[in-house]
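Entry 14. Structure prediction run on the chain below.
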Amino acid sequence: MQEKQLHSQEKILFFNKDYIAEFVYGGIDGAITTFAVVAGAEGASLGIQVVVILGLANLIADGFSMSVGNFFSTKAERDTFERHKQVEYWEIENLREKEVEEIREIYAAKGFKGDLLEQVVDVITADKDVWVDTMMKEELEMVKSDKAPYKTAGMTFFSFVVVGSVPLLSYVFTGAGPSIQDDLFLYSCILTGVALAIVGSLKSFVTEKNILFGIFETLLLGGLAAFLAYFVGDVLEKMFVAM
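Output returned:
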């Protein structure tokens, strides 16, 4: 238990390690979807104000939607675990011999035999809580997540908004002069690339994969999304102009 608590208190860049996955995937989704909006607006040759309005609207709406989905997903997972746990308690109370035999079969399959097997069975079945925990892990292969639904939702929304706002920064804080404004999309591309590279490296900690691969994969997905959005915006803009 103490080791588990210490593990849950590990932090990466000031964030609890248990919630890094939510930060990573919320950030990736936020950056890619917002950058896709920016790219689509650029492809359609829309004005700076339109880009900012569309980007911010997407940022808040999609971020909230994603966090709500995360909340209900985490809550449903915890509720399912508790429901199965109560079923196991009921079976121990009402189908004791059957449950004892299931414990015996589980540990026999692990290689325990004879007196040692019976000792293991006796120790586990002597405590209902230990018995139920064993059945949950060994029979149902279910482990309760320590993540609170509101924390996962909050982290998802926070990362979506923070990282997702990066593609808009050059438009929000645009400088004066036509030469500056002409390069806004280029600046947005650079800033978004940096943000995705940082989040991609964090993703490597979560997935335990090569950092360079994580960065490349994230940048590739972001680039493809932006290309498709820009292409669609450009095509639609030409269609409407032609009409």
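Strands lie at 11-12, 15-16.
Filed with the rest of this week's runs.
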